[in-house]
Amino acid sequence: MIGTHFVGRQPKWLVFILGLLIIGLVSLTDYLTVQGMIFAPFYLLPIYLATWFVGTWAGIVMSIVSSAVWLLGDVTENITYGHPSVPYWNMGVRLLLFLIVTHILSALKTSLHKERRLARSDTLTGVSNNLDFTEIAASMMARANLESKPLSVAFLDVDDFKSINDSFGHSAGDKLLRLAAEAIRKNIRPTDLVSRNGGDEFVILIADSGADEAREIVQRVNRGLLSTMKENKFNTTFSIGLVTCNTMPCSLDEMLKLADNLMYQAKTSGKNSIKCDVFGDKACVPVKVIATTDGHR
Known about the structure:
CATH topology of the largest domain: Alpha-Beta Plaits
Strand content: 5-15%
Number of helices: 10
CATH class of the largest domain: Alpha Beta
Distance between the termini: 52 Å
Strand order of the largest sheet: 2-3-1-4-5
Shape: elongated
Number of strands: 5
Structural class: alpha+beta
Oligomer: single chain
CATH architecture of the largest domain: 2-Layer Sandwich
Helix content: 55-70%
């Protein structure tokens, strides 16, 4: 387990070269040892490494190279066959076996990745679920603490979501949530993270951004949300609470609670707004977002 973890952390080209070196070592050992000794399992090792850590194409290449090298060893050894085509037949059988193993490993890896992704994704919207968010947030907070960088959390809630479900059905509500999740993803940076917190609530984790930059990102998200809602004939707005933590320690639970409270302030003060604050500092003035006729803020 430790060995494969170490291999997985290496560059793909290095793993590929390692596989070729293993094939060379196995073939040389096979050639120098007593005839009749079985070396097939050792040829499978580089095929496994290449397929799992590099890709299916690398496993196919390793399969072909392994079969060819094994054939070369059979031809150069003084072995008497009942027919000259026997070593080539053996090579074909070995190649088929190696390719089958490559296919099985590739399918297994794809299935594991899919299961892992599903386990960490919200089934309705495809964004991170609470488990994935908590683990990634812990890592991002540790890095922010180590590098003394700010971290922001935004809590977002769909205004009057219950009335949409009641009036148009849950299928319409589900569509709205999927559209909202996609709009958020499009308007945050690759370094940021969005998670569905349950129901009609989303959480956005904004890395390496002070209060001003975080507010700009959240305002861009809000504009994207309103534009998406208008395009899809949803007459709804969003209440958002944003908190920025400039100084540690500042736990994730504290940040989420503060952002949640700010979101409820936005909702109770008339909805359709963003309210923000800085942890331990009142310098961030709450921002009221005014709707315009084109659906932007």
